[in-house]
Design a protein that fits this description.
It comes from Azospirillum cavernae. This protein is α+β, with helices and mostly antiparallel strands and 577 residues long. Helices cover 47% and strands 23% of the residues. Strands 2-1-5-4-3 form a five-stranded antiparallel beta sheet, with helices on both faces.
């Protein structure tokens, strides 16, 4: 028996006992032991009252007793406290009725009237009452009326409990269930809930598309009939019983037109509306299976080409590994063309002057002034030749160093300012197509024992991210890179631009993978994710971002001068986020 029913029973017993005692006194009924009887009745009444009070205190409930003949009503002290009163207020007979919610009033009063007329043996109903603070409480009321010998209601009593929090929980649960169903319905892959015996409980829009049937028809179809081979479903059930949840089963389904649909199936068990059910996710892999079949057919028809195909695959893998260096290599020819051209011109000039000097010597017309002039031009040409050959060699060495660092991921000691210059030099072909100026302010002699390739990848991604997101085509702007020691064992690097900035709602997401505001416009959503992983991973540091929309963005890197002694994992993609 519930606590509420116990309280109601105690209340009815208490009221009945009081009524009997009052009737006995009213008619003047006496007996030889009337004093003893009255004392016993008082004791019983006191005992029942104590139990009732204990029950009310324990449950936070309230009880009432309405005398319909006298038009009076009594409430327990817990009732006004339930309504927010600190002290017990005056409680006239309409104390309860005037606090009913306007939308509930007619329904509740009709329910009570129906019970008092004898249409029901007890009543249970829920309604809202005004709280002292102006809000509304949800009340659950349970009770029973007492009738006289003629069947007329003379008294009724019951219990009220505050169920406001329970109703809120129910509303939150309902909203949560609605959200879950909406998520399930709009999921990008097919989601089904079925029973073991093959009945449908739920399917989403992707299931309808995958199976090629209207939802009403699909929900009426016995699940095994959808399989190209019904025995496959029995095998999957057996696998689930044996292994539990799984997610890698490739299954064939047959559409109404006879075509086959391949799906990657994941199975688990859930409770759906109180019923144990199978939850299956189906990802359409028909295109992939068709491609696999085509590959198999091609292999069977051209077995001889298999070795060439494998060789081509290895070449593609190697080419993809070096893809991040493509832009670096593309700028080599242009950058070293000028010094090599000047050197070639100087060498050609030396050759022409030497031939002219040789001819004059052979004709006996060589003069001292001619020889002196030749030596002077030879010295100048040699100077030009050496200067431009040195320039070309420096360019090649710079490109080579950056390329080796980014492809190998080796650790070494390097000077930070010089390496920043080398990385920016490798990006000159990309920067030349813009109207941006890059300033570098790095403390002299700042040495790092770290992974230059990883650091170069971070700097490259930050530059490309700024080009794609901070500045529009033809925009004029300034990028500033500063590097200063921070304490004895760390360095702080600030990368700042004066571009468009980042919207406040996007700022917390910039390091998340695949988040980009330039989808289809050069942004993959991986550039800043790689920056975050590389800085916090092999470089052992931290990265943060600040932005002011319309004014610019600042990325702050804090790196240890000596990187952690762990094998670096350097990502080679340079896509911007």
């Amino acid at each position: 028996m519930s606590v509420e029913l116990v309280i109601v029973a105690l209340l009815v017993l208490l009221v009945a006992g009081l009524a009997g005692a009052l009737v006995g006194l009213r008619v003047g009924r006496r007996c030889p032991d009337s004093d003893v009887v009255e004392r016993q009745a008082a004791a019983v009444h006191h005992d029942v009252g104590e139990r009732l009070e204990m029950a009310l205190d324990a449950t936070g409930a309230a009880v009432w007793d309405a005398d319909l003949v006298a038009g009076a009503c009594w409430w327990s002290d817990t009732f006004p406290r339930m309504l927010g009163y600190q002290d017990i207020p005056e409680m006239p007979p309409d104390f309860w009725e005037v606090r009913l919610h306007p939308e509930d009033r007619e329904r509740v009063l009709a329910h009570i009237a129906s019970h008092l007329s004898g249409e029901t043996t007890s009543y249970v109903y829920e309604y809202r009452m005004r709280h002292e603070n102006g809000g509304w409480l949800w009340i659950s009321a349970k009770g029973r009326a007492m009738h006289d010998a003629d069947g007329r209601p003379v008294r009724y009593a019951g219990i009220m409990t505050d169920i406001t929090e329970a109703r809120r929980q129910e509303e939150r649960l309902r909203a949560s269930e609605e959200r879950l169903l909406k998520i399930m319905e709009t999921a990008p892959i097919a989601l089904n809930v079925t029973t073991r015996d093959g009945r449908w409980l739920f399917c989403n829009a992707q299931s309808v598309r995958l199976m090629g049937r209207p939802r009403t028809d699909l929900m009426k179809t016995w699940v095994p009939d959808l399989y190209a081979d019904p025995a496959d479903r029995l095998a999957l059930i057996a696998r689930y019983d044996r292994e539990g949840a799984f997610r890698d089963a490739e299954i064939r389904f047959r559409k109404p037109d006879g075509s086959i649909v391949w799906a990657l199936s994941s199975w688990s068990m859930i409770d759906f509306d109180g019923e144990s059910a199978l939850l299956t996710w189906l990802y359409d892999i028909t295109d992939r299976k068709a491609a696999e079949s085509e590959l198999i057919r091609a292999r069977e028809e051209a077995e001889q080409a298999l070795a060439e195909l494998r060789e081509a695959q290895e070449s593609l893998i190697q080419a993809e590994t070096m893809a991040s260096l493509g832009q670096l290599v593309a700028g080599v020819a242009h950058e070293i063309n000028t010094p090599i051209g000047i050197g070639l011109t100087a060498a050609s000039h030396i050759g022409e002057q030497a031939d002219r000097l040789r001819a004059r010597f052979a004709d006996g017309q060589l003069r001292k002034s001619d020889f002196v002039e030749f030596l002077s031009e030879l010295a100048e040409s040699a100077r030009l030749l050496m200067a431009n050959i040195d320039r070309a060699a420096s360019l090649v060495q710079s490109f080579k160093q950056v390329a080796v660092d980014q492809s190998s991921g080796d650790r070494r000691v390097f000077e930070l300012g010089g390496y920043i210059a080398e990385v920016l030099f490798s990006l000159r072909p990309r920067l030349k197509r813009t109207r941006l100026t890059v300033y570098v302010d790095c403390a002299e002699g700042l040495m790092l024992d770290s992974y230059p390739g990883a650091f170069g990848q971070v700097l490259t991604n930050l530059v490309i991210n700024a080009l794609v997101h901070a500045y529009g085509d033809g925009a004029v702007g300034v990028i500033r890179i500063t590097a200063q020691p921070e304490g004895a064992d760390r360095v702080r690097i600030d990368f700042m631009d004066d571009g468009a900035g980042i919207a406040p709602e996007h700022l917390p997401k910039v390091f998340e993978p695949f988040f980009t505001t330039k989808r289809g416009q050069g942004g993959s959503g991986l550039g800043l994710h790689i920056v975050f992983n590389t800085v916090t991973g092999p470089l052992g540091g931290a990265v943060s971002v600040q932005s002011w929309p319309g004014q610019g963005t600042r990325f702050t890197l804090k790196l240890p001068c000596v990187a952690p002694a762990a094998a670096p994992v350097v990502e080679t993609e340079t896509a911007s986020s």
